[in-house]
Amino acid sequence: MLVKAGKRTPNYQFLPGRTQVVVNPQTFEWESLRPPLLVENFNSLRAYLDLLPPTSLRPRRLTENFHVFQIHQLQSVDFCNVEQVVKAKLFDQNNNQAILKFPYLYRSRIGTEVLLEYLTQPLLFVAGHAYLTTEGLVIIPISLIFKVDKKRVILQPWICGTDVQRIKYESKLLNDSQL
Known about the structure:
Blueprint: E1 2-3, E2 6-8, E3 14-16, E4 21-22, E5 38-39, H1 42-51, E6 66-70, E7 73-80, E8 85-91, E9 97-103, H2 109-118, E10 123-133, E11 136-148, E12 151-155, H3 164-178
Parallel strand pairs: 5-6, 9-11
Antiparallel strand pairs: 1-4, 2-3, 6-10, 7-8, 8-9, 10-11, 11-12
């Protein structure tokens, strides 16, 4: 969406101005992205991150560790009660492994539930921040592209609580609590 002017209300709603608003449909063909944004091999990113100095000694750039990952296989989707995260194993085209972790917070509670539902569908891409930990390469997702009914669908679990899914989720909770 391209908007020339607008304002944000105190409750964080965006109100477009009287100028033209242009909406371009997105097909989510992220294969066309180029390196270093698109990562097809987890080991190459792991090697690059290994060479960097510690985060406390390098420049502060919010997008420094932001990448788009092409996913070939998804396994072991689970909610970890100890860490309070949705956890899954991701594999690239060379069968290298990375770990997807999405934290469960009150603000993202609906997005977490929707993410757990969507992770049963084929996952094509994950966009998010990547870090090296003792577990290996860990990806904290911002956007995920799934193939649902032969179409590509985006899920942004941090903000998906503002749409129809939120209403469905809250009505489901209400119905479950009345039983």
